[in-house]
Write a structure and sequence with these properties.
The complex is a heterodimer of chains A (about 475) and B (about 300).
Chain A (H helix, E strand, L loop, with lengths): L7 H18 L1 E5 L2 E6 L6 E2 L1 H4 L1 E7 L14 H22 L6 E5 L4 E7 L9 H9 L4 E5 L5 E4 L3 E8 L7 E7 L1 H13 L5 E5 L2 E4 L11 E4 L8 H13 L7 E8 L1 H53 L9 E2 L1 H31 L3 H34 L5 H5 L1 H4 L9 H31 L17
Parallel strand pairs in A: 3-15
Antiparallel strand pairs in A: 1-2, 4-6, 4-14, 5-6, 7-8, 7-11, 9-10, 10-13, 11-12
Helix pairs in contact in A: 1-7, 1-12, 7-8, 7-12, 8-9, 8-12, 9-12
Chain B lengths: L7 H21 L6 H4 L1 E7 L6 H12 L3 E7 L6 E7 L7 H14 L6 E8 L1 H29 L5 H25 L6 H32 L6 H36 L3 H39 L1
Antiparallel strand pairs in B: 1-3, 1-4, 2-3
Helix pairs in contact in B: 1-6, 3-4, 5-6, 5-7, 6-7, 6-9, 7-8, 7-9, 8-9
The chains are: A alpha+beta (about 475), B alpha+beta (about 300).
Chain lengths: ~475, ~300
């Protein structure tokens, strides 16, 4: 067995504690007024909506909806295209509303679109129902003949919509529309034909204004006003955004919908974090009391495991996106601490056993490692299997494990809740770091400790005090 | 040295007794599926001051035009009470309906600042699909684990090792289910997550013991020691290790349970408490059920040979 130097213990211990501290605190450099973040801190953890509060909604096209299929096209292909178009528009709408952290998934097997977004920081007016309504609006702009006649043109013929002011009354705002080629031709024909008559501007099922046609419009531009209730600047801007964002290919219906207010979640998160700290402390005391020196090594390894978990959640480097951490995710971290210590317990027990039988410290430690590796390996692999299934079944269909298990799970549709996905993730990462810390780092540390003369006393490893 | 194999009738009866108890409770009180699986609607409202329970319930019923049931729930980290409204129908309400109810409640109780704390609406079809998917996930886990154990312990009678280990797991999942039933926790995706986790965890302890059995059997080698003696010896040798690891993991979960109980974090309590019970059962089944069961099958195999 390769001998390990005395200094290895300090190297490993310092590395572990250093990296863990770094993953909690982060690292950034400032130059004048600019601060560049190089390494993310624990504050950069992206919390799930069960903690931050927010909305989780599943949209579907209407039950009996069938897309318009062109020549030689399959219905399923057209449906897929429309679903993706809807997803892009929803993403657009979320971006326009400055909602940074949203998740939008399409479930192509079941024709569903799942949207999750948290409340904006500092938002005081929580209106989940309103938010869902805005997201799911079809947002189809139509210009019609007369007050409610045939459609002249639709939103898709609008190249650009922007906010303008009513020249006759600067406190009123309007939306200025610029049409594309087809739109320009259509509006030109219509205004020529309907000179002196009404045309109306509609958004979905609401008519906003129905002015009389005064000129023949040939430059492809038109102005939409609020009619009898003129637009404020916000309303005009919202309308322009809606038109620019595009209309959804089909009406969206809500199949499932949940909302959580932020006060509920942050309280729960703090309770869980405290639970984690207490659990860690108790386990550390237990390990040191029962296994003495190997116990202390185990505690350092556990610190490394927690550090690794935090690093993998925040992404550590500024360029890597943070993983979403939910309440079950925190429970997963606590659980993996409890399970992670397993590797150290097995090893320490074996070492103790060997010492009590009379073996030397060196051979006891070596035997302890060799004889227990396969049991530790098997134990961790089974958790990996289970965590993979958890992530595949409860996560987005296009994630790694979602696609891996796709052939089994996709017939059943994507999950309504996303919180368990985070739990599977923390279990999985916990196991990986358990291998790194609980096995490799522990061995390095312990093998180096036994070379230190003053620590070569059997009772420190579980033997009896002589 | 404790004769685990010899006392197997004792262990099996304890387990069967617990399962029988949960069956009785399941029959007497109906097993409740959470809305995540059956579809439906649950909305939690907070309020300031005093709001009469019956008046509130009636108001919501009138606004929705449907039957509802109302329960009180203590808010997280405070003494305030929230009202939890559950729709009796199987379908969720739409955001428009929810908004209409909120506005109606604000009109009916203008001084009480009624707010939606959380809402959960699930379509029945979506819910059922999710239920089936979760059960399939459980089944897949069982199968994968049987295959894994059978492969790792092929020298120990491969399939018999796999099957007995998984029977102990099935036992654990049923104890978890029993916990949900006896403590009247609606069965939700929490149950599936807990069950899957217990599978992964409980099999560890079983593996440790099988590992020992394999090692001792190899050491005994040609001398062909009595199977029962080997199994008993292995279990006894692994006892301290199994108990100590279980202690650490169970301790971690108990801390979570206690904190969740004290601070009224219901969602986590409904997750952590069954998890704790599952782990206790997992340790118990690995020690007292898996080994003796395997030994029993091996003896039958020998007799048949």
């Amino acid at each position: 067995m390769k001998k390990v130097g005395k200094s290895m213990f300090f190297i490993v211990a310092v590395l572990i504690i250093g990296l863990t501290a770094l993953s909690f605190v982060g690292f950034s450099t400032s130059y004048g007024d600019f601060t560049t973040k190089h390494i993310k801190s624990a504050e950069d953890i992206r919390w799930g909506i069960d903690i931050r509060g927010g909305v989780d909604v599943t949209f579907t096209p209407p039950k009996d909806y069938k897309p318009v299929v062109g020549e030689g096209e399959k219905e399923s292909d057209v449906m897929l295209r429309e679903l993706n178009a809807a997803k892009a528009i929803i993403n657009n709408r979320l971006a326009t509303q400055n909602i940074a952290d949203s998740e939008v998934y399409t479930d192509t097997a079941q024709n569903r679109i799942i949207v999750r977004f948290p409340w904006k920081e500092g938002e005081t007016n929580f209106n989940p129902e309103e938010a869902v309504k805005e997201l799911g609006e079809t947002a189809l702009l139509t210009i019609r003949e007369g007050a409610d006649g045939p459609v002249i043109l639709e939103g898709k013929n609008v190249k650009q919509a922007s906010v303008g002011q009513n020249p006759d009354n600067p406190t009123e705002f309007v939306v200025q529309l610029t049409f594309d080629e087809d739109g320009t031709k259509a509006i030109s024909d219509a205004t020529q034909r309907l000179l002196g008559q009404q045309i109306s501007f509609w958004m979905d099922d609401v008519s906003f204004s129905s002015p009389v046609v005064r000129d023949h419009i040939t430059d492809g531009k038109a102005t939409m006003s609020g009619g009898s209730t003129p637009f404020t600047v916000e309303e005009a801007r919202d309308m322009a955004d809606k038109i620019n964002g595009g209309a959804l290919p089909f009406k969206l219906e809500t199949a499932s919908f949940s909302s959580i207010s932020p006060t509920l979640g942050t309280g729960a998160r703090d309770v869980m974090l405290w639970a984690g700290v207490i659990a860690f402390a108790l386990i550390s005391i237990f390990m040191i009391a029962k296994y003495r020196l190997p116990g202390m090594v185990a505690v350092i390894a556990l610190i490394g495991q927690v550090g690794g978990l935090i690093a993998c959640t925040t992404g550590f480097f500024n360029s890597v996106p943070s993983f979403t951490m939910t309440l079950p995710g925190i429970a997963g971290i606590i659980l993996s601490i409890g399970m992670g210590v397993d590797a150290n317990v097995i090893t320490a027990e074996r070492v103790k056993e060997e010492i009590l039988v009379g073996k030397s410290i060196d051979s006891a430690v070596n035997n302890g490692f060799e004889r227990t590796f396969s049991a530790i390996f098997d134990g961790n692999i089974t958790v990996v299997i289970v965590a993979a299934i958890l992530m595949g079944a409860f996560g987005p269909p296009d994630s790694f494990f979602g696609t891996l298990f796709g052939f089994i799970f996709s017939p059943f549709g994507a999950s309504a809740t996303g919180t368990i996905y985070s739990f599977g993730y923390t279990l999985l990462v916990g196991v990986v770091f358990n291998f790194l810390m609980g096995v490799t780092a522990t061995r390095l540390m312990l093998k180096s400790i036994i070379r230190m003369k003053p620590l070569r006393k059997p009772w420190l490893y579980g033997g009896k005090k002589s | 040295m404790i004769d685990f194999c010899g006392k197997r009738k004792l262990w099996f009866s304890i387990s069967l007794g617990l399962l029988a108890l949960s069956l009785i409770v399941a029959l007497v009180f109906k097993v409740e599926l959470d809305i995540t699986f059956r579809g439906g609607s649950i909305v939690t409202y907070s309020f300031d001051g005093d709001v009469d329970k019956t008046a509130f319930e009636n108001e919501v019923q009138t606004l929705l035009g449907q039957q509802v049931s109302l329960q009180e729930q203590t808010a997280i980290n405070s003494d305030k009470v929230n009202y939890v409204v559950t729709l009796s129908a199987k379908s969720g309400i739409t955001p428009e309906q929810q908004q209409a109810v909120s506005e109606g409640l604000a009109k009916a109780f203008p001084d009480n600042n009624i707010q939606v704390v959380s809402s959960n609406n699930v379509d029945a079809v979506v819910g059922r699909g999710f239920l089936i998917k979760s059960l399939v996930a459980l089944l897949v886990a069982f199968l994968l684990l049987i295959v894994y154990i059978a492969f790792r312990f092929r020298k120990m009678g491969g399939w018999s090792a796999g099957v007995t280990a998984v029977l102990a797991l099935v036992h654990d999942v049923m104890i978890v289910l029993a916990t949900f039933i006896i403590f009247r926790i609606p069965i939700s995706d929490n149950f599936i997550a807990v069950a899957l986790t217990i599978l992964g965890w409980s099999i560890n302890a079983t593996i440790v013991i099988y590992d020992r059995i394999r090692e001792n059997a190899a050491l005994a080698g040609k001398r062909g020691t009595d199977i029962r003696e080997t199994v008993n010896k292995s279990i006894n040798q692994s006892l301290t290790r199994t108990i100590n690891t279980s202690v650490c993991t169970i301790l971690a979960m108990v801390v979570v349970c206690v904190m969740a109980l004290v601070f009224n974090v219901h969602s986590i309590l409904e997750f952590a408490f069954p998890m704790t019970m599952g782990m206790v059962s997992g340790a118990y089944s690995s020690i007292c059920i898996a080994g003796p069961l395997w030994e029993m099958i091996q003896q039958r195999k020998l007799k048949a040979a």
